Every structure is written in C-alpha cells, then in structure tokens.
Amino acid sequence: MSRGNPDNLRRAAAAKSAAAHSRADHGIREMIRRNVPVTFRGLAQTAGVSLDFLYRNPEIRHRVEQLRTQQRSAPPAPSPPADPDHPSSVVRTLTVQITELKRRHREEVQTLKSALEAVHGENLELRRRLGGHRPHPAEISPSSNC
C-alpha cells in the first residue's frame, strides 16, 4: 500500500496553514474591534488555532507582541459598566460560544473525514482481495437470501 502522494500532502498542509493564518488575522482584527487585550492565549481561543502555531509563525508572533506592547503603553479606555444584559455583553458572549462551537465542529468534521478515508481504504483493500469477482445471479442459491 502506498504512503500517499507527497505533493497532495504538501498542498493540504499549506492549505491548512493558510486557513489557520487567515483565522489568526481575523481573530486579531476581532480582538482589536472588541477592544480586548491581544494575547497569545486570547488569540488562540478567538481564532481557533493552537498556541504552537501562533508562536511558530514569525509574522503573527511579531504582530501580537507589537499590539501587546501598544496596548500596555496606551491609556486604558474607560470601561462601560458591566451590565450582563447590555447588548454588547450578550453579543460578546454569543460570539465566544459560536467560536467554540465552530472549533468543535471543525474538529468533529476532521475526525469524521479521517474515519471515512480509513473506511474507504479498507473497502478498497477488501474489494482487491475479492479480485473483483462478483457472483452471477445464477450462482446465488435461493436459500442464501434468507
């Protein structure tokens, strides 16, 4: 059995990395828009990416460090009273919940895709073992249909 096409694997890895990079960019913009401190942990949670990815990506790492420094040196913005029924609090809470649901959904879809690929492989292997021989309808005895 072959180990797969290396070019396809490289393209898939590049696509996965590009998607994570895009989610991180969007996460940074979202954190700035919501006026929350930009941290590696906060960005990882907001963007649905790993801390390892953020630390290993020089461009994103530099942006997070730069924004963190800017936010520390900037005077704190006056915070509105913490009213849990305030629309922005509700939106923030729902946004966090949706982000988490999307992350879990992506993980579940990936797990299901992996399982489906494995089953397709097993199916192909079994079909090869049978040698493509399909019994003729006359070969099937009536008693085997029970």
UniProtKB/TrEMBL annotation:
Chain intervals with Low complexity compositional bias: 11-21
Region (Disordered): 1-22, 62-90, 127-146
InterPro entries (alphabetical): TnpC-like
Keyword tRNA processing appears in the UniProt entry: no
Entry superkingdom: Bacteria
Keyword Metal-binding tagged: no
The entry's keywords: Plasmid
Name of the molecule in the record: Transposase
Organism: Rhodococcus opacus
